[in-house]
Specification:
Shape of chain B: globular
Oligomer: heterodimer
Number of helices of chain A: 0
Helix content of chain A: under 10%
Shape of chain A: globular
Number of strands of chain A: 11
Strand content of chain B: over 45%
Number of helices of chain B: 0
Chain lengths: 120, 113
């Protein structure tokens, strides 16, 4: 079955960076896009960006442009999301989500989420 | 950006009764070439990630009970739970995948009366 397993919770200071990983299994890794979505406490789900896992092309939300980088390691079936210059408002649960398509499509499987806390 | 607006914010329904959630997009998300609406519905229970229920506005994901149904087209959509069960207590989100940034509605919390 499809599984997306994310790395563990992180606590970071303002200005630091965080890198969250998402290891995929149970399907052909390079055939489907991977998206990142975050959910701050009490807020709606917020899309951050996506990666074409086959060719590595990425597209990011303008809100995070310049601060977010999504990469993939096909040998490890893992996608990474790095967010830099963290501020308190970045405290949220971060999810990877597998698209049902090679690019944009419904998000059919989700990781368990990674809580990132930004606090001085 | 396409803005997704859900109503109501919360809903309290008797067990076995119908629950209806509305979602409106700020732009048309029906692609005329394939006659598909680029809209999904998700269910999120506390402490869990969202779960895909419906895509293409009305196609039920495999394994989703048939009491869940989606309808609508263009800019107005509805998720209906025909007979609410205790396990349906959750927050429900609509989402458009017509264009990036993908955007979500604000969520509708469904509770049992």
């Amino acid at each position: 079955q499809v599984l997306l397993v994310q790395s563990g919770a992180e606590v970071k200071k303002p200005g630091a960076s965080v890198k969250v990983s998402c290891k995929a299994s149970g399907y052909t890794f390079t055939s489907y896009a991977m998206h990142w979505v975050r959910q701050a406490p009490g807020q709606r789900l917020e899309w951050m960006g996506w990666i074409n896992v086959d060719n590595g092309n990425t597209k990011y939300s303008e809100k995070f442009q310049g601060r977010v980088t999504i990469t993939r390691d096909t040998s490890a079936s893992t996608v990474h999301m790095e967010l830099s210059r963290l501020r308190s408002e970045d405290t949220a649960v971060y999810y990877c989500a597998k698209s049902a398509a090679a690019n944009i499509g419904p998000l059919e499987y989700w990781g368990q989420g990674t809580l990132v806390t930004v606090s001085s | 950006d396409i803005v997704m607006t859900q109503s109501p914010d919360s809903l309290v329904v008797y067990l076995g009764e119908r629950a209806t959630i509305n979602c409106k997009s700020s732009q048309n998300i029906l692609y005329s070439s394939n006659n598909k609406n680029y809209l999904s519905w998700y269910q999120q229970k506390p402490g869990q990630p969202p779960k895909l229920l419906i895509y293409w506005a009305s196609t039920r994901e495999s394994g989703v009970p048939d009491r869940f149904s989606g309808s609508g087209s263009g800019t107005e959509f509805t998720l209906t739970i025909s007979s609410l069960q205790a396990e349906d207590v959750a927050v429900y989100y609509c989402q458009q995948y017509w264009s990036t940034p993908l955007t979500f509605g604000g969520g509708t919390k469904v509770e049992i009366k």
